[in-house]
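User: Predict the full complex structure for these chains.
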Amino acid sequence: MATTDASNIKRLQVRRFKPDESPKEHYLNAEKGLWSWLTSVDHKRIGLMYLASIAFFFLLGGILALVLRTELLSPARSFIDADVYNQIFTLHGAIMIFFFLVPSVPAALGNFVLPLQLGAKDVAFPRLNLASFYIYTIGAIFTLIAIFTGGIDTGWTFYTPYSAETSTNVMMMTLGIFILGFSSILTGVNFIVTIHKMRAPGLTWNKLPLMLWALYATSIIQVLATPVLAITVLLLAMERALGIGIFDPALGGDPVLYQHFFWFYSHPAVYIMIVPGFGVISEVISTFSRKTVFGYWAIALSSLAIAFIGFLVWGHHMFTAGQSSLASMVFSFLTFLVGIPTGIKIFNWLATMYKGSIDMKTPMLYAMVFLFLFTIGGFTGIMLGALVVDIHLHDTYYVVAHFHYVMMGGMVMAFLAGIHYWWPKMFGKMYNEFWAKIACGIIFIGFNMTFLPQFIMGAQGMPRRYYNYIDQFQPFHQFSTAGSYVLGVGFLIMATYLIHSLLRGKKAGSNPWGSRALEWQTSSPAPHHNFEHTPVIVNGPYDYHKPMSEFQLGIAHSHNGHHEGEKVDVETGTAQEKA
Amino acid sequence: MSGHHISSAKFLWSVGSALFFLTFITVAVTWVQIPAPWNIVVAIGIAAVKATIVVAFFMNLWWDSKFNSMLFVMSIIFFLLLIGITLLDTLYRVDPTPAF
Amino acid sequence: MSETSAVKERPEHLKHYFVDSDQQFDAAKMGMWVFLVTEILFFGGLFAAYIVYRSWYPELYLQASTELNTFWGTVNTAVLIGSSLTVAMAIRSAQLNQIKGLIINLWITISLAFIFMVIKFFEYTHKFEKGIFPGEYYTYEGIAHEKANIFFSIYYMMTGLHGVHVLIGIGLMIFLVVKAKKGAFSSAYYTPVEITGLYWHLVDVIWIFLFPLLYLID
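Assistant: Here is the predicted structure of the three-chain assembly.
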């Protein structure tokens, strides 16, 4: 820092640092060779490695889904047997949740964006970050081994007593999940410390971008909830190995206790999955409305509120499990509460768009899709939270439709919005806007075709995880399967134009969207150490009424000492800013 | 300089002695017949005092950033929520009597 | 510490993404505290199982607890508290740049931890001789409660997991001794000692709760 006053106010000499529009060196070519990638502690490269891994798992989980839906084209056996069917839906769930959704925004996009938005050179513990990635990989390998050595057929929830007795390879799978949990925990640790300790000068909590508030809330959930999952799968493994009997009624145990432990993690886990998506939506909507987010503190604090209340509602998965009615009533009431902060966000995002200058680019299109689909998913969640209604709807396709609307219609759409938004920053290339919009449209249509009928089916009584069904449901199933193929086509188109962008895409400038956020004030692709200077923040993160130059300030002499004493050329005219 | 509090050897030894003494109390209390559930309350209470001493004066939370203290307190709160709400189920189960 | 020009020497331990040593130290400490939060919740699940089953079978806990040796449990408690004291002294030595003292205190801590594990080993083997095994291998007839195996399953899970953490702590501290002998630590940089100490104290705190809950059910 230039000088330090005795008081709390630091005075900094700042000047404007315009980003290089055609950088010769950046993080992608700073070090060459496969080994440099595999041993990289650069958060951006680690983020990309996560991205490649989760893309692989999304493909795997998606193929499993298509197989499931194809089997369901007709009642009874179409082309796979019942026990294979059980294994496929178990794997589809476990892979999509643990290997795709939970790491998707935090580990892939979050790793990439967080230090850039903070103005930091990296996360607080870069080597731990790389370790997190390898722990994820090892957990994934254990899971793949489990798939190929006996499979698992318990459902992704591994309920006892079946999971303690089945001959499928539950041990290997739970070991994989146990290991994976550490990856999630260590990422959470890294993010919390980074956000607390490594903010750029001037970046006070009230100027923190909402993406970072979301990642912060997510990290808190990850840190508090994942250990309980770890102990749960450890206990399950011990139950199988030693027959300890904590969950076995024959030995005096209680299977519902397993469900308590399991859902204590798995309900907050759904908030781990969606809250980062909320962060992405805040960024995308403000950028493409060229307006400050309406109700900044409401959105920031509602992320924390969701994180907290989300820990109190887990029993709404257990209304029919034999839980005491007192507990069921308490959980139902709390479940209604948790919808409130979420609803607040939706209204605030709509208000952000009102009288904004809307630029309907692909990320914004995905954000609109998100608002529509997630609202449906959220409403149906509240409906399921009504205790008496849930008695009828539990374990039916209504639940399946609900969680696909929030997880896929919500989170995956937000993730895609984030990918399309930050793609230029990650790769320095643009993608074909026309085909991107076509793919978005196809995905939207395919998604609704697949899952809207499932609400109706479920309310009429079609149970979930069922291989067989009665004839009255066949038209619904067939329509749903057709929709799943449309979805597949949409994703194929997406893969095509994204790969084309990597190979032959148009070069992107530093700030193709005209955003005020800090990550856009450096070149694309990002430089090896993120910024060539120490950024200084003077404005709020979405102050679109302020000129772009005020978002590109940095400490004047931190790089080479030559600019000491130079005045800043900012249009507001002040030469010194309070930190 | 932040976060570099150095305790004197005398201080650390007196903290250790206090903990040894409290351990003796922990065992001694079991020689007194205290009716349930108060015996559990006393046992947990003494353990909590010992734990607080370790956390405050060995782990230096007493002189550390308030945020780290908040982290610790939050973990306890969430642990209490886990058991509290689970007990709402396990303690209040009533075997259903069939109506037919 | 202020950065007056770019050509200032940075200490070797200071990473390029931190501004100064204090920031790096505070970040490491905060990171360890966040990790300790996860450890508390991890063991918390086991304490939750303990509480649920104790509320259902209080007489079982009373009877089964008599099989646990209060004397050796007390000794182990004193051993762990002693090791907490010595690890705090080790950190103090590092803070005062007394590397010899650091190494000695670390060795004492390791020895005490080792004693703890030895006592645990004898406790376990004594139980195995009687047929008190975890889970379905339980064959002991000495407790007149049909669910006796549940208490011992919880006992073995909690003390076993705790023991694993003690072993990990021993490993970490041996690593610290090796690094200290190579001169890696000084009063300017002793962060790994500090955060290992925090981990070790938590292992002690967990035992402080395990001891009365398992051994002293009167």
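Chain C touches chain A at residues 2-3, 5-7, 16-18, 23, 26-28, 30-31, 34-35, 37-39, 41-46, 48-49, 52-53, 57, 134-137, 146-147, 149-150, 153-154, 156-157, 161 (CB under 8 Å).
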